[in-house]
Amino acid sequence: MKPQTNRQKQALATKHKIFSCAVTLFAQQSYENVTVQDICREAEVSVGAFYHHFKSKENILDEGYRLFDQQSEEAWKQGHPDEPLAAIHFLILEQAQSMENMGALAALQYFKHQLSSNEKYILNPDRFFYQTILHAVEEETADGILHGDPVVITEDILSLTRGLIYDWCLHEGTYTLSERSQKVLDMIIHYYQK
To answer: Where does the record place the HTH tetR-type domain (predicted)?
Structure first.
């Protein structure tokens, strides 16, 4: 892989700054009330720079899922548990902490976007997040620790944790999502250990 040029690094830094400022604004106000001009003002970039990096305001939300996957993969590469059940806990905790860091209002914008988007990126089974959890579940079913179809178990883990994030958003982040997600995950795993 070729090293990035200074121009490429600057472009990536600008894109990240636009994204970060947009998420901050989404966390402070309703997504619908934030304009591209608001984002540009906060990021201190021109409208042209915004459209160079993003097709639309909605595209920022799509980028958020991809960024989450990149961050999850990076955290995974920096060190993860070898034991499959601990690895699943690790990834679900990463997901919950990412939502907590973003804030309930911003997280809600992502969910609203996915409900109305034609591209349901969050459901893509090719994502690193999905594939890594599936692989851990397959290991546990092969070893007889979990019982059932690995795809069904993976889908249950992901759908229940997504539902928990939605509930956390409804409660405006008034409880600790990372703690609750681990508790819910333990219940799912216990069910499939029978």
So the answer is: 12-72
